[in-house]
Amino acid sequence: GDSVTQMEGPVTLSEEAFLTINCTYTATGYPSLFWYVQYPGEGLQLLLKATKADDKGSNKGFEATYRKETTSFHLEKGSVQVSDSAVYFCALTVHDYKLSFGAGTTVTVRA
Amino acid sequence: GAGVSQSPRYKVAKRGQDVALRCDPISGHVSLFWYQQALGQGPEFLTYFQNEAQLDKSGLPSDRFFAERPEGSVSTLKIQRTQQEDSAVYLCASSPGGFGMNEQYFGPGTRLTVT
Fold first, then answer.
1. What is the pLDDT of residues A21-51, one digit of tens each?
2. Which of A110, B32, B37, B107 is 20 to 30 A from A40, alpha carbon to alpha carbon?
3. Residue B14 burial (CB count, 10 A)
4. What's the N-to-C CA distance of chain A in angstroms?
5. Percent of residues, chain B, with pLDDT higher than 70
6. Strand partners, B67
7. How close A86 comes to chain B (CA, Å)?
8. What distance in Å separates the CA atoms of residue B106 and residue A63, rounded to the nearest whole number?
9. DSSP string for residues in A8-68
């Protein structure tokens, strides 16, 4: 079945450090790929998405590129802030409605 | 504007009790989704409605789980004879269109604890 594997956490960083969260997927068709973020005390929010190979999604300084050859969609940010502390979920859909999520990666950024 | 709301936010049930979880989607949103999130895991799809039609219920874990959206807006997820393994956060999401990759907007979830 369709599934997502993402880097286990927790990840702890200092402010202005570089962040990478690895995400790989298995899918029967041609999935669309997403990163969702859950800030403390809040609901899941879409961070960015890519719908076809080689697309790059970007938002709030975060980027991820859809790599079909490596079945990956790694999330990166060049300089994190304390406000980026959250749980990050990689997700995919093949059916255009049903999302399959990874287990989530908890990121803590220290001042 | 108003987002997706869910009630109650927290529910404690004794094993064997029935529970009903409510979701109020964003007004006018056609699609509505229920997900189950166990502790330390990502959300798992339960069911999908397009207006009042339940188009996919493949993720419902057993026949104790039942969802409805009778007028195409508010939805209720009902769990009968709750078991300890039902303890999880139940997330509702809505999106403006039907099929096609509209963004899903998530509610804050209902945390169900079965004792």
1. 999 999 988 899 999 999 988 889 999 999 9
2. B32
3. 8
4. 41
5. 97
6. B77
7. 13
8. 22
9. -S-EEEETT--EEE-EEEE-SS--EEEEEEE-TTS--EEEEEE-STT-EEEETTEEEE-BT
pLDDT digits (tens, 9 = 90+) for A78-95: 999 999 999 999 999 987
- The 3 state secondary structure assigned to B51-101 is CCEEEECCCCCCCCEEEECCCCCCEEEEECCCCHHHCEEEEEEEECCCCCC
Which residues in chain A touch residue B10, judged by CB atoms under 8 angstroms apart?
Answer: none
pLDDT at A65 over 90: yes
- Per this entry, what is the length of chain B? 115
Question: Is residue B40 scored above 80 in pLDDT?
Answer: yes
Question: How far apart are the CA of B76 and the nearest CA of chain A, in angstroms?
Answer: 19
A98 touches chain B (CB under 8 A): yes
Tokens linked to B105: 């907007």
- Angstrom distance (rounded) from CA B27 to CA A49: 24
The answer to whether A108 and A61 are in contact (CB under 8 A) is no
Is there a contact between A32 and B101 if contact means CB atoms under 8 Å apart?
A: yes
Chain B contact present for A31, CB below 8 A: no
